[in-house]
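For this section, I looked closely at the sequence of one protein beside the tokens encoding its backbone, which the following lines show:
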Amino acid sequence: MNKWTLTCLILFFFSSWARAETLMVRHDHNPWGKCAGEIIITDDGIEYRTKKQKHDRQWKWVDIQSFDRKAASAFSILSYEDQRLSLGADRSFNFTILPEAETMSEETYQFISQHLSKPGLDRVSRKIEAEYQVPVKHLHTFGGCEGTLYFGEEWIVYETDHEEDARTWKRDQEVQSVWSLNRYQLEIHVFEENKRAFDKTRRFRFQLKEPLNGDYYDRLRREFIEVW
């Protein structure tokens, strides 16, 4: 075997190894029970292996309807699999990384996000260098939660103590448009699974505690009009 062939084999081995990652997890059943196993992430998709074989699953990337990073150590996978006892609703699989002090690295999440056929859902805030920021109230169907919107070169982050509503959006992939009726309101329309309107983007409505910077808003509007 010549040196060139040996070098290619070594590079192939290490590149293949680097693209596979295993996470020890707990699968939380709905509504009761749990089982331990491992999540294996590769170029082909995500696999869940456990001693309870009926819970084994293997998803190609295109078979994952939504990936939701709920927290640094928790995530869910929404499949296209029907739930017979839930009138055919699509089955969601909830996982917690073990031990719970462990977290999913940013590199792992980005690897997953880049391979999904639909944008993922990221509830983990990240520190970014903000071009613009504004304190807000996120308006829910009933009530709301308070936090801050940060606009960076690549990301838009909504940071709040209400963990379920925290969001991190990649500007060029996950945000469809922004809209404002007046300088104290802002809507961000994103590509996120919207169970109330299956074929539409999800709208996040914010009440601004400070007047919206008109120049920055005009820049946002032009950016997303050009992209979409």
User: Anything to note?
Assistant: The chain has two domains: 3-122, 130-227. The helical segments are 3-18, 106-115, 171-174, 214-227. The longest strand covers residues 74-83.
